[in-house]
Amino acid sequence: MTKPGVLSSAVRVFDFSFGQMLWSRRSVFLGLLVGAPMAIALAVRLVAAARGLPVINGAGLSGATLFGILIWLLFVRFIVPVLGVFYGTSLIADEVDDKTITYLFTRPVPRSAVLLGKYFSYLACVVLLVLPSVVVMYFLVVPIGSRIGDAFPSLVEDLAMLIVGLAAYGAVFAFVGAQLKRPLIIGLVFAFGWENTVLAIPGYLKRLSVAYYLQALVPHAMPQDSSAMSVFLQVFQELPTVATSLICLTGITIVALWLAGRAVETREYVLEQ
Amino acid sequence: MTTKTRYFVIVSLLVMFVGLGTGLVAYYVGFPANAFFNRSTPEELRYLPGNAGLVAYADVREIMASDLRQRLRQAFGAEVQDNSRRQFQDLTGINFETDIERIVACFDPGGTTGGNGLVIARGVFDAVKIEALMREHGAQVQDYKGKRLIVAPHFAENDFDKFGNNSNEPRPSPTSPPTTLALTFVEPGLVAFGSSSLVQRAIDLHIGGGESAATNDELVSHVRDLEGGNAWVVGRLDVLKGTAKLPEVVANQLPPITWFGLRGHIDGGFQARVTAEAKDDESANMLRDVVRGFLALAKLQTSAKPEFQHFVQSLQLGGTGKTVSLSLDVPAQVFDAIGAAIPKPPAPSQTPQ
After folding, report:
1. Which of B12, B225, B273 sits opposite A58 (nearest CB)?
2. What is the largest CA-CA distance in chain A?
3. Of the ranges A98-107, A250-259, B42-51, B315-324, which is most confident?
4. Which of A68, A95, A179, B294 has its CA 20 to 30 A from that of B314?
5. Do both B51 and B73 map to the same domain?
6. B22 in contact with A at a CB cutoff of 8 Å?
């Protein structure tokens, strides 16, 4: 009997793990995470209908500007990395913790196909939840003083950027989960410690982060305030081109997935008794 | 895949496809923004010509009631301002403080008459009094498409002297074409005042619709960007420059700006944002450099004046691509300082009873 290929095996793993992942307890957290922007957008819409949007330095916010701010602050800076950390690190780690990894590894499928199938489940799960949330948010916020059609190209770019970001973060943290012990802590330190720190440091160090490339794909201007940190970031802000970002993020995703697959293939997982 | 999971996938995809489909239709067909929400542009825009080179708006009631205005009244002499207001009321029958709610004005560079401005004011007006006063000044009542059009061949110079204009500025040459002004009540509580041709055009637009400032997508888009202030101005510098017939030396020195806008919010202080849309990215960068230089100079000059520190620190240069913007926040203290610096007129001597 010939051993099934990696891709066909990954599809089988995807088939059963997608539903499992979607209806897991972790999805309650995911639901809250993607529900919050919709709730904020609804609140903004109600406030704007009653009193109008606030005026800052003589400039009234428009719906399109506010949508850009929400995309930056909620999705790019928080939701995408958090989803990557929580789901990516759990792809293999959860099976180890539940001591069910043995059942998967004793099947006649390549070990890397298990990781790949679970990674695709993660991607489908988060994409199907995050993207509709962004679309709903768009239709709640953007019509406030802006045209839906005018901002539509930026919505498409936002959705594409989010898919690329979720894929890259998921792959990086899938590798972290497959390779390291206590992946969640290390993932959180990477996403909210390392990435934020290197972005503020002048030089080439920021190129060792996912956020650096992802920021270049955001079609909205980065929100700025008058704080010293914001001014500092503005001074040292340099963004790669869209093409460079896409190539680098694709590279990061492929390399991280390959490394994660290799780690799963070679590493011996010791289950605690 | 279970049925529950399948339903979830279908619903999720449905939300995305309906959303993207609607957005796509809006993008190509031009779905109106006000299909869902409408508070972005003043409705009076539909009475202004579509090719207006300059459009301005002021929420007069809000500005008149603002703390800043009260401070300015005290700083610059309430009595003088009251006299001016009274003289204006005597001449036009309109109390600027109480009668007008908001005004929208425009300058039409394509106007063929001597005057090519139009003011649309919304408020509470005494139509009979206004008409009587205008007739006193030589105006005649005409009928235009069923509307009473009060036309003044031109305002006599004496009329303007009533405002106390004692300056030595040269008066317009008597050979210049007379300014034909007209006034009409487009609808109850809405008065249009300006050059006759534009007032007639406003009546045409009111009756039959047509191309107006409200249908000029580019203008409306710039007006929407100015939302939030209680006064704003938006215009095309390139169009105005052509109309102004400036000397070539001066015209060449002006930055290559197409659209410009000023949004002001007057309350306790004055917050504003000036935006300019340059011809291209390079011009915008050059303009930013110039403004940055002026900001540095202003910071240097005011370093020893604490009352201006907040104002100078509030100056923020921004904008991306072709757009250059400058935000500023003038606190009430700055106006107090200016008011204190202006020499007060000597108090009238008390005559013994």
Report:
1. B273
2. 74
3. A250-259
4. A68
5. yes
6. yes
B271 and B333 assigned to the same domain: yes
Q: Which residues form the domain of B61?
A: 35-162+178-216
Q: Are B36 and A15 in contact (CB < 8 Å)?
A: no
pLDDT tens per residue across span A35-91: 888 898 888 888 877 766 665 544 456 778 788 888 888 888 888 999 888 888 888
Helix (H, G, I), strand (E, B) or coil at A110: coil
Q: Say whether residue B321 is in contact with chain A using an 8 A CB cutoff.
A: no
Q: Is B156 near chain A, with CB under 8 Å?
A: no
B19 lies in some domain: no
Provide φ and ψ at B153, rounded to 5°: -55, -45
Do residue B23 and residue A60 have CB atoms under 8 angstroms apart?
A: no
Q: For chain B, first and last CA: distance in Å?
A: 103
List chain B residues with CB under 8 Å of A146: 33, 40, 224
Element (H, E) at B196: helix B196-208
In a domain, B172, yes or no: no
Question: Residue B29 in contact with residue B217, Cβ under 8 Å?
Answer: no
Q: Could you read off the pLDDT of A167-176 as tens digits, one per residue?
A: 999 999 999 8
Answer yes or no: do B183 and B238 share one domain: no
Asked if residue B325 and residue B251 are part of one domain, the reply reads yes
Quick check: A163 contacting B, CB < 8 Å? no
- Nearest-CA distance from A217 to chain B in Å? 16
pLDDT, tens digit (0-9, with 9 covering 90-100), for A159-205: 999 999 999 999 999 998 888 878 888 888 888 888 888 887 777 88
Question: Is B301 found in the same domain as B206?
Answer: no
Q: Hey, where are the domains in chain A?
A: 6-266
| Burial per residue of B124-153, b for 16 or more beta-carbon CB atoms within 10 angstroms, e otherwise | ebeeeebbebbeeeebeeeebeebebbbbe
Note the pLDDT of residue A223: 59
Give chain A's end-to-end CA distance (angstroms, integer). 34
Q: How many domains does chain B have?
A: 2
Flag whether pLDDT at A216 surpasses 70: yes
B235 and B132 share a domain? no
